[in-house]
Amino acid sequence: MKLKNRGFMLITFIMALVMSACSSDGEKNAASTGTSDGQTTTDVPQEIVVRVNDDPDFLDPHKATASISYQMILNIFEGLMAPETDGSLKEGLAESYEISEDGLTYTFKIRQGVKFHNGDDVTMEDIQYSFDRLMGKNGGEKMSNNFDNVASTEAPDANTFVIKLKEPNSNFLYSLTARQSAIIPKSNDGKHNENPIGTGPFAFVKYAPGTNLELKKNEHYWQEGLPYLNKVTFAFQSDDQAAIMSLMANEVDLTSVPWHRVSEVEASYNLSHQNNNSSLIVTFNETKAPFDNVKVRQAINYAISKADIIDSVFAGYAVPLGSNMSPAMGDFQKKGLESMYERDVEKAKALLAEAGYPDGFKTKITVSSHNDIYSNIAQIVVANLQEIGIDVEIEVVEWGIWLDRVYFGRDYEMTTIDLTGRASAYEILNDYISTNDSENFFLFKNEEYDKIMADVLKETDQAKQIDYYHRAQEILAEQATAVYIADYQIVWGSDKQVTGLKSYPFWFHDMSEVKFSN
Amino acid sequence: MMYILRRIILLITTILLVSIITFGVFQILPGDPVRTMLGTEADSTQIENLRFELGLDRPLYEQYVDWMKGLLTGQLGDSIRFSMPVKELLFDRLPVTMSLAGLTLIIVLIISLPLGMFAARRQNKLSDVSLSTVTQIGMAVPSFWLGMMLILYIGLQFSFFKISGYIPWTQSVTGALSTLILPALTIAIPQIAVNFRYVRTAILEQVQLDYVRTIRSKGMSEQNVMYKHVLKNSMIPILTVFGLIMAEVVAGTIIVEQVFSLPGIGQLLITAISNRDFPLVQGIVMYITVAVVMINFIVDVLYSVLDPRIRLR
Asked: What are the boundaries of the signal sequence (chain A) (predicted)?
């Protein structure tokens, strides 16, 4: 009997714990947003928690290479030029610029009165220091290959900065945004990774590895009235499903929503659709038989159904592609190529037979396990190619091994991956230049393509540049360099009160104009 | 004394062996940490710079000697992924995992012990059969799924419970509980089931013994019989299982921290492995090894206290 009483007491204790736990409602909201201090100017707390799925690789903008880092740190740093949402450029720390007729001299007038987050003015010395650091001219290691073409840099007066190139390069201005050449203070030398200081709308507060990155409002930001938010917290959470639950539990205010779960959140949250500007491809090692035969590559292009992949993997949230460029790139994209290889199994079989493989062949598709989409795509590829007699085995490997073996080692037959979008058309297409050893993992080799990509750098007229880029895309399609599947959309789900989100043709959570509205 | 000395020698040998294996394994495993960290976006200069900075361009034996030296002085090197000392990262995460493991153990204990005793006393009655069935299910449930269910049906329904992140005890006790209860329950539920069954069996074995009949016949109260004699004599088999459960709890934190985005050692280990951050993995594996080996050591010592005959074996 006494034992029974103890059991009863235990249950009562647990119940009491749960009940008391459930009753402290207000505290949770305060903890999740930390905003109930009433110190903000409006009724709505201007603090946001943005979920990202991984830590930055570096906070030092000259060392960072991963897209995920720039999603966050472009809020801290600025370059001489700044990106626009349509992929074009506008002036950033430079107030204006001029390019000499021969395309070799770039003269920038620097905006006056801009301050770093530590309160110091931006000086010519800081700008010079930033470029010297990137080029390895101040005694340290060279930080980037982007500036190999720079002959000299100089500051003739207190608000002019001049860069001279060895050869004209129509893509050079793209190297001057914060992503490639953030302007950082000389006084912070040696501490750029631990305590990053820039001129952007938000200043660094704290980085807790694996947990979050905290930024605060730059009170002295040079753009009048911006930013609106007082605090931005990037919370790292790798699991998409858990992230959705965190959104529902009000623990994050903004996250990407897995495509198949959009219907669960669309009623209660704001959804915005961003063309990712990446090219999701199924590709081949073009030096290995049978993929060295263009007819085999074309047969595979006819056999794989982009619509099947878009519907089943991306729940329809994707735009079909015909070459390595997304509609997010506007006029730079050659339209119409997406219908060049409409699904045609008979044609695919005929092409295979012409290539000398009437009964098909056996091959392997190596995919990374770090994102489900790759193995999901591989399964559709297997089913599609089976219809034309190609027997594909799926090999799933870890991301590190994929990089080692497929991307850098080129030891593969087929693979699927999404190539991250860049703001510059040249940087998107230069992966296929035969001498681009670091990025051309397809081992694609085409003389006409190489020539076009060399010529476009010397062309200053944008209409003519576009013609070059269009022809380059046609070559990729004609040569069936890869199966260009789609640019999938990222669906962002946010609290209904969040407004001012801007989407760029590359990964950047621009928080400068974001605010909570009633 | 000899018994404890033998155990200590075994403990040190295990730790040393694990340290050698961990270093070796990461030299054989495919995947380059620098390339994994920088991804496809990095150019050759950036890759070379980082390799140099991390000392990965040096001969393997030099790296090995350095690591061993560091290990002896308690310095575990720098994490490749996070560019900061492994020791610092471990110390930041340790309180989270320790709190989670501690809370889990408390939950397991306060539920499974009374429940096991209760079921044993009502052997083959309806309540015993139902409890055994329920716990059978509890044992079979995968912790990942269980975590998700707790998030869905408790975390999202009752706003007190946080489903991600961690609030330190020093900042707020209720805050810490709000972040830890659901993950602790996720690990505890299957362990309660395991422990319940062992407690029940151990007590059933005892109550059938002659001495219990004797003390009962002498008129001792049922409560005294159970707590003073039966429970104490059942402790040896229960302790064995409890040692195993503690090891399970430490291992269980790995998955559960991932599900609840709890910034503990387990979550750090997953990140470290996927990034081929071997200084960090080595550090964490050493921590887990020491924790598990120490738990086993304590259990062994406790045995010898409870039953002196064990020391003679």
From this structure: 1-23
C-alpha–C-alpha distance, residues A49 and A56, integer Å: 16
- Per-residue CA distances from B124 to A69, B128, B133, B192 (Å): 61, 6, 12, 20
A468's tokens? 């070059």
- Both structure tokens of A158: 């207190």
Higher-pLDDT residue of B211, A76? A76
Both tokens of A461, joined, read 């007229």
What is the rounded CA–CA span in Å between residue B240 and residue B277?
A: 35
Residue among B92, B93, B118 minimizing CB distance to A3: B118
Contact A443, A292 (CB under 8 A): no
**pLDDT > 80? residue A5:** no
| Nearest-neighbour CA in chain B from A193: distance (Å) | 9
Higher-pLDDT residue of B254, A231: A231
Give which of A28, A57, A279 to mutate to test B binding, by max B Cβ within 10 Å.
A57
Average pLDDT estimate for A402-415: 93
Enumerate the residues of chain B whose CB falls inside 8 A of the CB of residue A209. 79, 81-82, 84, 89, 92
Please tell me the distance in Å from A171's CA to the nearest CA on chain B.
17
| Min Cα–Cα distance to chain A from B241, Å | 23
| pLDDT for position A40 | 42
- Report the C-alpha gap between A281 and A136 in whole angstroms: 36
SS3 B190: helix
Question: Which of A11, A28, A52, A366 should we substitute to test contact with B (largest number of B Cβ atoms within 10 Å)?
Answer: A28
Of the candidates A146, A126, A123, the one whose C-alpha atom is nearest the C-alpha of residue A136 is: A146
Q: How sure is the predictor about B38, in pLDDT bands with cuts at 50, 70 and 90? A: confident
Overall residue count recorded for chain B in this entry: 313
pTM confidence score: 0.83
